[in-house]
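user: can you give me the structure for this one chain? tokens are fine.
assistant: on it. calling the predictor now.
[tool input]
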Amino acid sequence: MDTCTLCPRMCGVNRAAGEKGYCGMDATIRAARAALHMWEEPCISGTRGSGAVFFSGCSLRCIFCQNFEIAEGNCAKEISGERLSEIFLELQEQGAANINLVTAAHYVPAVIESLKKAKAQGMDLPVIYNSSGYERVETVQMLEEVVDVWLPDFKYMDSKLAFAYSRAKDYPEVARAAIREMMKAAGTCAYDEDGYIQKGVIVRHLILPGHTKNSIAVLDELYGTYGDDLTISLMNQYTPLPQVRNIPDLNRRVTKREYEKVLDHALDLGITQGFFQEGGTAKESFIPLFDYEGL
């Protein structure tokens, strides 16, 4: 933390001394919510719920972020590493199917330590690393001893789009390398007798309005590289929030025609291992309240 290079931004700032990196955070753990989350893929949430801990700050900070309030650090409660260990145990006691680390890249050393403490005290749930996909391979390797399931996004194959919306022109190659390492660590998905995932990689892709070509390129890349060894989750839940009201394309929902175009391409490719969302585009109900519950 004194010369932070946890994420691909590689700021090199002294977060231990209170400096803030691109993620907007210093070394103090900050979070917005820790509770059972019912809106993940069926094999993650099921009927029990996923024990999701939403960390504040983000190293990618997409302009359209669906969790913009916490990504920007506007909703952030300080917690200690010891308290984080207790939260993991409390979520297990509540019946969570897993521990779900949401955007934790900039806290990786502290999260690893807290997970080890919780496991030493009886926490035995699968651990899910829920990520933007913008990860250093070296950071992924640090996590391999404590993470069972990798849940990265693959947002962009178009580097110009990645720069315009996330200021990360290198996103395509960074995400490809990170997912390659995740697949190496976890391999194909494995489930328990109730259908809950125990290990593996699920890559999410959020379709953006007006950018079906990018989505099709993402599917081509993932399926062309991994075939059915990789599980793909195709999402139409994009919700235009106030920060994008003046940005063309992003100030509307994905149309039914756009979603069907991408889904048809997925089916034409032959993808059989994956998830897609039925019905119309999502409402804001998919975005939880960041009210510090469970912290």
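assistant: here you go. The CA atoms of residues 63 and 217 lie 21 Å apart. The beta strands are 30-37, 50-55, 77-78, 99-102, 127-131, 149-152, 190-191, 197-206, 231-235, 274-276.
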